[in-house]
Design goal:
Elements (H helix, E strand, L loop, with lengths): L1 E6 L5 H10 L3 E6 L14 E5 L11 H16 L4 E2 L2 H8 L1 H10 L7 E5 L4 H5 L6 E5 L9 E3 L2 H9 L10 E6 L7 E8 L2 E9 L36 E3 L8 H12 L4 E8 L5 E7 L6 H7 L3 H22 L1
Parallel strand pairs: 1-2, 1-3, 3-4
Antiparallel strand pairs: 5-8, 6-7, 6-8, 9-10, 9-12, 10-11, 12-13
Helix pairs in contact: 1-9, 2-3, 3-4
Length: about 325
């Protein structure tokens, strides 16, 4: 049986290939930027690992997002095991659905208002106290994220006609949570198991002037050009948070949330305010791992994903042999 990998970003694939190869798994890769789906066609033999990202549109692959969403639902309807299937992917593609499901699970999130079109945006912003931020509903690389210190600044921004739309046309207005420290925390989990937590410096990414666009881009991503960056104090931008463990009540809530929402793999991010209150604001199903942090602490997130693939392959082969 085969591990079929659906992906659209070549830069993210080397660690996936290495981990799967180290487990001796047969792998077929499917670059996905669009395609044709025969509804009554044959299904693949094996399992599917979904590595599509909501940021695919930033690389010109929005067609792949639409195709993958339908493909995942089709595969699951035909009984193919999928790691991060249709429900998980739907949550990644809609922060509205993310926040609704997090709140339903009893996990605290920033107050958020969703707006379709700019005509109602100014009135909708009055539902929030300033400062507040904007976000794209279909997120990716910080695009669309801006901080506004006043409603008047937001009005001027909207009237200026420079609003950058989300690919799905949904703009989020969200309560701004000022971090107690200059970092956010990302909790990595695979198949119900806590792997570790990583702190990412927000230096230059969260403390913004009124109506200035975030320079986040890939700055919060623990891989790529920013992976080895250091802060102005000489500290590493990405560090393991050893005070966050599997017994942490928030981590346990994340584990339950993933089980209830079909997420086998996720990196979930939260920010802690000055009162020690933790606010969860993002769920990443196509999680990547920081090689420097993992090497330093003997960790291997992608290896955990490969182990999950191996377990599902073994279970499938045993079921086939028993027939």
């Amino acid at each position: 049986m085969t591990v079929h990998v659906i992906y659209e970003n070549e830069d993210w694939m080397p660690p996936v290939r290495e981990a799967l190869a180290s487990r001796g798994l047969r792998v077929v890769e499917h670059f996905t930027a669009g395609g044709a789906l025969e509804i009554g066609g044959d299904v693949p033999d094996g399992i599917v690992l979904n590595r599509m990202s909501p940021s695919s549109h930033t690389r010109g692959h929005q067609g792949g997002v639409v195709y993958a969403r339908e493909l995942l639902g089709w595969l699951e309807a035909r009984g193919v095991p999928v790691i991060n299937g249709r429900r998980a992917f739907d949550l990644e593609l809609s922060k509205v659905q993310q926040h609704a499901s997090l709140e339903a699970a009893g996990i605290r999130t920033p107050r958020t208002v969703a707006v379709v079109g700019s005509a109602d945006a100014k009135a909708a912003a009055r539902k929030l106290d300033a400062p507040f931020i904007t976000k794209h509903n279909q997120g990716g690389k910080g695009l669309g994220v801006q901080l506004f210190e006043s409603h008047e600044a937001f009005d001027q921004f909207i009237d200026g006609g420079t609003l950058e739309p989300s690919p799905d046309g949904v703009l989020l207005l969200q309560q701004y949570i000022k971090p107690a420290g200059d970092f956010i925390t990302r909790v990595e989990l695979v198949d119900g198991e806590f792997l570790y937590a990583i702190r990412s410096s927000t230096e230059g990414g969260f403390e913004l002037c009124p109506a200035d666009a975030c320079s986040i881009d890939d700055a919060m991503c623990p891989v790529g050009e920013q992976a080895e960056a250091v802060t102005s104090t000489g500290e590493k931008k990405f560090q393991r948070r050893e005070d966050i463990t599997a017994d942490d009540p928030l981590v346990q809530a994340y584990v339950r949330y993933m089980a209830d929402n079909g997420l086998r793999v996720a990196g979930i991010e939260f920010v802690e305010d000055a009162d020690g209150v933790r606010w969860t604001y993002d769920v990443n199903g196509t999680t990547n791992y920081n090689g420097s942090v993992e090497s330093e602490h003997g960790l291997h997130g992608m290896g955990a994903i490969a182990d999950l693939c191996a377990q599902l392959i073994q279970a499938g082969e045993q079921a086939a042999a028993a027939k």
